[in-house]
Amino acid sequence: MPEVVEAAERRSPRAVLGSWDAIVVLALVLVVLASSGLVDGFATDRNLGFLLLDVVAIVLIALPMTLVIITGEIDLSVASTLGLTSAVMGQLWVSGLALELIVPLCLLLGVLLGAVNGLFVTRFGLPSLAVTIGTLALYRGLALVVLGDRAIADFPVGWTDRAISSVPGTSIPQAVLPVLVLALVFGVVLHATPIGRGLYAMGNNDRAATFAGVPVAGTKFWLFVSTGAVSALAGVFWTLRYASARADNGTGLELAVVAAVLLGGVSIFGGRGGLVGVLAGVLLLGTLRNALQLADVPADTLTIVTGSLLILSVVAPNVARSARTAPGRRRPPAPAPNP
């Protein structure tokens, strides 16, 4: 019965309010309020629209990355996939193909790049950290081979305007709407289906999940395919948003994605976390960077802040979890029976 009691405690209002997700949401609210009062220009509709545009690519990639990390794996090649997609998109455009054909080809490229990662991890049993560090360099190198140091910037205005336009009557970018749909899909899969339960089981114990009938290798393979496809979609958005296809687009974005996912409460060791905290983590990081940029804080300091939050996101949940379980561990031993 202790498992039943523990599950009931996790569902109790006190547990929900004291969860890491709630802490991150509260931190987001406090940062937004503080930035609105202290930073000139932060609370304007124009700036809030830019803030949401800035986090679109990070949110997109963070959705499948959350599922991957919950299984105990990681994909560090996502930003390089974005860059290679952008380079191929630019090269195909100057070659005369229509964007209506280029976009699905770029998404197919992302599927193939993700499948390469998935095959190495699931078929050959290689650690995902090593594999995706290697493909991080490989995919970025291929992007440089495809486009070199050129920048392709003559995309149709109708497409580039669509990437940055707002919902009529609001400052909310239209690009946010499909992101919300994808977030809902990933949220339902993770939190309301047997697939999601299998992901948590894999993150806690691969072998036990296999004995329970979870298709571990196949599931992980398709998760890497999903990170590749969504990273390619982020590459298409990035290229159209900035109206520029470059081989170095998205460089370093994997750090922001992983930081947001871990800050959102997903355990780097797998088996724990949820999408609500991740979305709050993305917005928290994006809000901090936006406010610091408006305050003319140097770019190096922004990198330091991101790195510090990454460390905090790994350490703090474990410290909080240890603090919650400490009273149980400090119970006095039962008295020895009388002889």
Written overview of the protein:
The longest helix has 31 residues, at 299-329. Helix 14 runs antiparallel to helix 15. This protein is mainly α and 339 residues long. The chain has helices spanning 2-11, 13-17, 20-38, 45-70, 78-94, 99-122, 128-147, 157-164, 176-192, 194-204, 206-211, 216-242, 253-263, 275-294, 299-329. Helix content is 74%, strand content 0%. The protein has one domain: ABC transporter involved in vitamin B12 uptake, BtuC.
Task: Write a brief structural summary.
The chain has 339 residues and is an all-alpha fold. The chain has helices at residues 2-11, 13-17, 20-38, 45-70, 78-94, 99-122, 128-147, 157-164, 176-192, 194-204, 206-211, 216-242, 253-263, 275-294, 299-329.
Annotation, overall tally of beta strands: 0
Percentage of residues in helical conformation: over 70%
From the alpha-carbon coordinates, what is the Rg to the nearest angstrom?
Answer: 22 Å
Beta content comes to: under 5%
The unreliable regions are 1-15
Secondary-structure blueprint:
Elements: H1 2-11, H2 13-17, H3 20-38, H4 45-70, H5 78-94, H6 99-122, H7 128-147, H8 157-164, H9 176-192, H10 194-204, H11 206-211, H12 216-242, H13 253-263, H14 275-294, H15 299-329
Descriptive keywords:
single chain; 339 residues; ABC transporter involved in vitamin B12 uptake, BtuC; 0% strand; disordered N terminus
